[in-house]
Each structure stands twice: as C-alpha cells, then as structure tokens.
Amino acid sequence: MALFNRKNNNAPSATATVAPAVDPALAALTGDYAIDPAHSSIGFTVRHAMVTNVRGTFGEHEGSLKLDGSDPANSTASIDVKIASVDTGIADRDGHLVSGDFFDAEKFPLMTFRSTRAEQLGGDKYRVTGDLTIKDVTRPLSIDLEFNGSATDVYGNERVGFEGSADILRSDWGLTWNAALETGGVMVSDKVKLNFDISAIKSAVTQA
Fold first, then answer.
1. Which end of the chain is more exposed for a tag (fewer CB within 10 A), N or C?
2. Which residues of the chain carry a pLDDT beneath 70?
3. CA–CA separation, 158 vs 167, rounded Å?
4. d(CA 188, CA 71)
5. Half-sphere exposure of residue 77: CA atoms within 13 angstroms, side-chain side
6. pLDDT score of 208
C-alpha cells in the first residue's frame, strides 16, 4: 500500500495524462495518529567488546504521524524520546549511558526526529528522511520502514503499524566515548542500529 508514494512531476509527456485513481483503502488511512508507547518500541543495537551485541530500548517516548492517503507524499512523522528512560538490562550501564560520557541526559533530555521527506521503495517498503537531534547536534537520517498494515482493535481504535531501522555512526552526533581493549579494538563500536516498531492510533476526530 503506497503510503508515501510520490508523484513524478518531471516525467516527459507529449499529451496530458489522467492522474491515477486514489486507492479507497489508502485514502481511508488519511488522518492524524498518535504513537501508542504501550505497543511500540524504539531502541538500538550496538557491538560491544568487538564480539557481541548489546540491545537497549527507550521506555518513554511519544510521537505523531500525519498520513495523507490521497497524496501520500504529504505524510509526516515526529518523535520525541526521553533519554533517561534507556534500558539495556543493566543499571550500571544505563547510568553510564545517561552520563556526560554519552548522552548527558540531564542537559539534553530528549532525542528527536522530524521528518522532511518520504518515498516508496517498492511494495510496502518505504524510506522516511528527516532530522535526528541528539544532544545539541542535528543531522539528516533516513529510516527504512515496512508498513505492517492497518486494523481496528477491540476498543474500536483504528491502528497502523510500521517497523524499520537505520544505521548511524554515533560519533556524528558527538557520542565519542570509548575504551581500548588489550587485544585490540575498542569497547563500543561507532556503528549503531536504531530500531523502530511503531503502532499508532488514529485520532478520534479523523476516525469520525
């Protein structure tokens, strides 16, 4: 379902063409959505000590989606993540991550993403590009997503679901702390995979 399909206004044409009809199922998704934090996950995976992966999530986050089924290129996304909610399963490690060595959560409490562009890659696969801000650094980020579908839950809420990921270099956002290993290499890799599993609920106004 082409949620973020973009029109090609530069395609050459000798004669005027009729715009394709809007898919009714796609058009029905148009509206404002709030990300449901109880059924969503935003996290990361990073290589530790060169030999294994550490996974973590951010337990507190909020965000919104604006889907335009009639002109999907107008769809947007906004996410705010509370850094202090990081959870890797080890309290000491979480404390180090929120300290000044890494996120400095007391001074920079939020990680934010604001979309600027969206495109369809084929089928239900999409790419959303926007600005990711961590600490005081804002840089462009592209997130590859798969649309998992839409459904009405047992409470009558209309939901949409997406999952996806993006690879970043943490040093690009000023997260440079590391420690050398006696056997060579470093304690924490520069490359980090961000993981997104999103369930969003359509607002009551746009459900009506």
1. C
2. 1-23, 205-208
3. 31
4. 43
5. 28
6. 52
Of the candidates 154, 123, 117, 160, the residue with the CA atom closest to the CA atom of residue 29: 160
CA–CA dist 123, 147 (Å, integer): 9
Q: Are 35 and 206 in contact (CB under 8 A)?
A: no
* Degrees to nearest 5, angle at CA 109 with 128 and 166: 25
pLDDT computed for residue 50 by the predictor: 86
Q: Answer whether 29's CB lies under 8 Å from 159's CB.
A: no
pLDDT in tens, 140-164: 999 999 999 999 999 999 999 999 9
Per-residue three-class SS string for the chain: CCCCCCCCCCCCCCCCCCCCCCCHHHHCCCEEEEECHHHCEEEEEEEECCCEEEEEEECCEEEEEEECCCCHHHCEEEEEEEHHHEECCCHHHHHHHHCCCCCCCCCCCEEEEEEEEEEEEECCEEEEEEEEEECCEEEEEEEEEEEEEEEECCCCCEEEEEEEEEEEEHHHHCCCCCCECCCCCECEEEEEEEEEEEEEEECHHHHC
